[in-house]
Amino acid sequence: MQQFDIIIIGSGIGGLVCANLLGLEGYRVCVLEKNRQTGGALQTYVRDRVIFDSAVHYIGGLDKGQNLYQIFKYLGLIDKLKLRKMDPDAFDMILIDGDDREYPLAQGYENFMEKLGRMFPGEEASIRTYCETIRSVCSRFPLYNLRSGGAYSEKADVLEISAKQFIESVTSHPKLQAVLGGNNILYAGQGEKTPLYIHALILNSYIESSWKCVDGASQIAKWLARNIRQCDGEVRCNAEVKEIVVQEGRVSHVRLEGGAILKASNFISNLHPAKTLELLDSPVIRPAYRSRINHLENSISCFSLNLVLKKGSLKYFSHNYYWQRPGFLWKMEQYNADNWPLGYALFMSPSSRGGEFAEAMTILAYMRYEEVKPWENTVNTVSHPAQRGDEYESFKRKKTAILMDLLEKKFPGLRSMVLSSYAATPLSFRDYTGSKEGSIYGILKDCRDPVKTLIAPHTRLPNFYFTGQNLNLHGILGASITALATCNALLGHENIIEKIRNA
Ligand SMILES: Cc1cc2nc3c(=O)[nH]c(=O)nc-3n(C[C@H](O)[C@H](O)[C@H](O)COP(=O)(O)OP(=O)(O)OC[C@H]3O[C@@H](n4cnc5c(N)ncnc54)[C@H](O)[C@@H]3O)c2cc1C
Q1: Which pTM was predicted?
Q2: Which residue range is the domain that position 388 belongs to?
Q3: Count of structural domains within the chain
Q4: pLDDT digits (tens, 9 = 90+) for 357-416
Q5: Does 135 lie in the same domain as 240?
Q6: Cβ–ligand 1 contact at 10 (below 6 Å)
Q7: Buried (b) or exposed (e) across 209-244, using 16+ Cβ within 10 A?
Q8: How far is the C-alpha of 206 from the C-alpha of 193, rounded, in Å?
Q9: Boundary of a domain, candidates 414, 440, 466
Q10: Atom 2 (ligand 1): residue with closest C-alpha?
Q11: Given the CA of residue 474, which atom of ligand 1 is nearest to it?
C-alpha cells in the first residue's frame, strides 16, 4: 500500500494548483484523476486537426504584477504558457438583438471608461461610478489581492447586494444596464441571486487584462502536472476514487476503481462537495451538513457548438461576443422551447499556425439538464466511449440549426464557411468534468443568503479539505485563489501568500 503526505482527488485547476503549491512546500502529493486527460474544465480535444477548448476560452489578471500573473509566476508557469493578449479596446463585445451596434468592454479602467463613454454620451459619470465601485468591492477580498488576513466584516456589507441591483443603481439608462451586465454568462448571472461581488471579482480581472491560450488551455494542466512530478509528486490519470474511508475520526485512505488503496496523512477533494460526500460515509459529517450541501442550487449547464471553419473564410477577431435578447438578460436560464436561446457567448481560439483567418469558433448557450434527461443513463467519455443514440443526435442537430439561424444574422453566410460542426450538451460536461448535471460553474452563489452558498475549505474531519470552483469563486483565477485558501487551511498559516507576492 502506497503512502503519501497529501492525496488530492481530481485534477481540475484547483486540485493541480493545490498539489503544486504543497509540493513546493516539501510535501509528497498524489493527484488522482478519473479521466485519461488531466485538467477537468481545462481539457481540450481535436477535430479536423483543430484544437477545441472544452470550457476555458479566456483568462483575466495575467498582466505583470496582477493576481493570477503572480500565482503563475510563483509556480513557474508564466514564461512557459503560450498566451495572447486580447484586443485592448474590446475583450468582449456586447450585442443586443435588434441593435446593430457592438458595445465594447475594453481593457484598462481608463480605456474601459473612454470606450463605453463614447457609446453612451452623458453617462460618463455613471460609468466612472461603476468602475470605482467594482474596484472598491474587489479591494475587500484579501486573497484576491494576495493579502493575508482580512476580517469577514471587511466584506460583509457587499455580500448581500445583487449585481443587477447594483448596475441599476448606477445608471437608469436601460441599454447601458444591458451592456454592463452583458457578459453575465461568465458567471451564470441571475437577477435575484447573483451577488455584486461575483460580478466585480470576475469583471475586474478581465478589465485589468484579458488573455487567450494559444492552442488551448490544457497546456496549463500539462505544465502544472510536470511541476508536481518535479517536486517528487505523482499525477495519476484513469484513477477514479470510489470511496473515501474514515477510521477513528480521520480519513485514512481512498479506494480506487479496481480496488487499489492509497494512504496519506491529509486529503483534498477537488470535486463538487455533494459528489465528495457521496464517496464519504462517516457519522462525523453531520446529516444537517450533508443536507445543506445536497440542497444547494448549482449553476445551469450549457450547449456548446464547435465549428471548424473552412480555410480563409472568416477573419480572426481577438474579442468575444455576448449576444442577448432584450428583457431577458438576468433570466436567460428561463428560456422555453419557442425562445431558446435568450443569449449566447461566442469565442474564437488562437492557433500557433497564426494567420489572419480563424480556424474555428465556439458558441455557448444555456441548456437545462432536464432537456437531456432522456439520455442521462448513457455515458460517453474518452475511456468509455458509448453512443447516446439517434434521437440524441437528432436533438443536437435541431439545437445546432436554431443556433446557426441566429448566428447567420451576425455572420451572414456562416453556414457556407463551416467545414464541420460538433455539439456538446450538459451530458458531455457531466461526463468530462464530473460536475453535477453538467453545471458550468458549480454551486450558485446567492446574495440573499451569501454565507450558505460559500463553502469553507476545512471540514469536520481534521485531515480532509475541499478545493475548487464550488467554494468561493469559479474560473481559472477563482479556482487558483481558492486553492491558495485550501493550502492555507491545511498548513495552518498564510506564508505562501507572501512568497507569491514576492515571486
Ligand atoms: C463551458 C464552460 C466555460 C468556461 N469558460 C471559462 C473561461 O473562459 N475562463 C475561465 O477562467 N473559466 C471558465 N470556466 C470555468 C472554469 O473552467 C472552472 O471554474 C474551473 O476550471 C473549475 O476547476 P475546478 O478545479 O473546480 O475543477 P474541475 O475542472 O471541475 O475538475 C474536477 C476534476 O475532478 C475529476 N473527478 C471527478 N470525480 C472524480 C473521482 N471520483 N475521482 C477522481 N477524479 C474525479 C474530474 O474528472 C475533473 O477532472 C468555464 C467553465 C465551463 C464549464
Answers
A1: 0.96
A2: 300-440
A3: 3
A4: 999 999 999 999 999 999 998 876 655 655 788 899 999 999 999 999 999 999 999 999
A5: no
A6: yes
A7: bbbbbbebbbbbbbbbbebbeebebbbebebbbeeb
A8: 22
A9: 440
A10: 55
A11: 19
